[in-house]
Amino acid sequence: MQISARVQNAPGHHETFVTTNDHTRSITIPPKSSGAGSSVNGGELLFLALATCYCNDIYREAAKRNIVVRSVQVEVQGEFGAAPGSRAENVTYKAMVEAEASEQAILELMNQTDAVAEIQNTLRQVTPVTLVGATARPV
User: Fold this and answer.
1) pTM for the full model?
2) Cβ atoms < 10 Å from Cβ of 54
3) Cα 128 to Cα 139: distance, rounded to the nearest angstrom
4) Which of 19, 38, 85, 89 is the most exposed, having the fewest neighbouring CB atoms within 10 Å of its CB?
5) Average pLDDT of the segment spanning 93-121
6) Residue 26 in this model has a pLDDT that exceeds 90
7) Which of 95, 107, 94 has the alpha carbon at shortest distance from 67?
8) 8-state DSSP, 34
9) The pLDDT of residue 3
10) Given this model, what pLDDT does residue 44 score?
11) What is the CA radius of gyration of the chain?
12) pLDDT value of residue 129
């Protein structure tokens, strides 16, 4: 599965796009009130990615077990240091899953999902991120 994300920003203008396997969708995120950048920061989006991944994966893993999920709530918390370039620390998350199954079966589903959640596993490992292109356009 090939995934990409794109941001286009100029004063008063902010567009965001995600693409998976050539299927592109726009995500509405307004610009900062100053117009320079996004009103949502990267840390917030990173934590939203963790929450979204776990939520989606609960449904995927539940289907494998023939468990009907009624609702999922996921809350991710963590910290970033004040210095530019600080890494996320103390990242934790909690979840509530309501499903048509026993408490034990739901907890097993939740633990299995935690073990296979792709974004969680990406952050649990060291993943290189490399700037492979930079274009400067003087005006």
Assistant:
1) 0.91
2) 22
3) 33
4) 85
5) 97
6) yes
7) 107
8) T
9) 95
10) 96
11) 18
12) 83
